[in-house]
Amino acid sequence: MLIRVSLGGGMLATAKTQSMLNTLNNVVLLGLILQVLFFGFFVIVASIFHKRIRAVPTGRSSALKVPWERYLVILYLASAMIMVRCVFRIAEYAGGQDGKLLSTELYLYIFDATLMFLVMVIFSVQHPSMVINRTAVSDYRMDQLNS
């Protein structure tokens, strides 16, 4: 998927004919659509996992002393921003080379740069390594040995 988008995007810059430009634009568009579908599937699977683990918690999920549910919420928030960006990119490429979205820089700043900056800030403040670290794993193992 990512390779398809990257190759298509890279080759778009060197397209010599309108026909080749249209074909490569469609390759990028298809790659972006596949990306949204697979990413959407990931979010659905994560939310099903979250719903099930809340309904019937495992011993390990209950024993962990880290706020793992908060990180799932952060994952949903970041995923929503990434999904908005991906849908924007589809609309951008669907509009063609002369489309308003592709030719207006403000849309790129709002729906691409700002969203990705916010995702970066969220994960800088609440980095997943705070959940998956040696202390949390050691605490869990010690609890298992003591019980």
Descriptive notes:
With 147 residues, the chain is mainly α. It has one domain. It is 81% helix and 0% strand. The chain contains seven helices and no strands. The protein has helices at residues 2-12, 18-55, 59-63, 68-94, 100-103, 105-125, 134-146. The longest helix has 38 residues, at 18-55.
Identify the notable features of this structure and list them briefly.
single chain, 147 residues, mainly alpha
The proportion of strand residues reads under 5%
Task: Give the overall silhouette.
Answer: elongated
Average pLDDT across residues? 84
Briefly note the structural class of the backbone: mainly alpha
Total separate domains: 1
Helix fraction?
A: over 70%
Multimerization status: single chain
Short description:
The protein is mainly α.
Topology:
Layout: H1 2-12, H2 18-55, H3 59-63, H4 68-94, H5 100-103, H6 105-125, H7 134-146
